[in-house]
Amino acid sequence: MDDLDAILGSAPERIEAARTLEALSAVETELLGRNSVITAQRRGLGQLEPSERPAAGARLNEAAQRLQGLVDERRRMLDLEAEDRLLADDRVDVTVARRSLRTGTSHLITQTIDEIADIFTAIGYQIADGPEAETAWHNFDALNTPWWHPSRLESDTMYLDYGDPEDEILLRTQTSTVQARTMESQPPPVHIIAPGRCYRTDTFDATHSPVFHQFEGLAVAEGITFADLKGTLSYFAREYFGPDRTIKVIPHFFPFTEPSAEMHVSCFACDGSGCRVCSQSGWLELLGCGMVDPNVFEAVGYDPAAVTGFAFGGGIERVAMVRHGIEDIRHLFDNDLRVNEQFV
Question: What's the predicted TM-score (pTM) here?
């Protein structure tokens, strides 16, 4: 029992000195394990006189319970300390400013397409779309472009399957193909705007790109005249370039319209007096237009004696460059943030 008193006297300090759960388990094994003094003395109880055994047993149990209580309390404290460290490691300082991502925006070409679409849908036009890999019939024949026209050569058009006029597949050179497909699929009246991507074998330079975007408009109904075309284009010019814009149409030629014209809009930079933007002319060439050729109506199954219509089309890059003073079309394709961030 003298050894037991010595153990009980030193145990609190030894248990308190354990800084980890592993160290505490080692102390617990030494004090209460199979090879501990208490276990050895319990084995020796049978050697005592019967009258001494109860008191000795009670003493050993009391000592074991006291030691186990000290170990359990220390283990509880170590568990709390470990939990506190874990919470401290996972702590989030809500007073620190969070890292924020830069806000993105649509590309200028996409912004221009959306704005043009909004302008025309506001007066009842519908958005139409079609495939970019197109048949030669929809790209040329349905639009009154004969087989011998220079635009049908491989030097101008990107073919996917070239040679047999009946089965030629190409990357569309214009979104006018959507006009033909729309008229094939529905009877008049038709009022559509068709923006989209086009392809031509152009050299990539300041004013040309082999991949570009167009918007085409088509209106077909009874009694439509050239005056309706001019009124529609005047509305577009005012909405896109400003309320004081005026237009003029100059005779031109396109296979799918007759009569055909080019539309010019008064310069928004100098108000028509002449400046660098308009090359001192006071006018900006913007798009092509005209009345739909009767041959186009016949190709898609419309009766040219019953309906008339007009069509117009221009380059998305062209109108964006004119409006924003961009002199090189390559800026729109270079993915240079210094350019793109100007139009946020």
Answer: 0.69
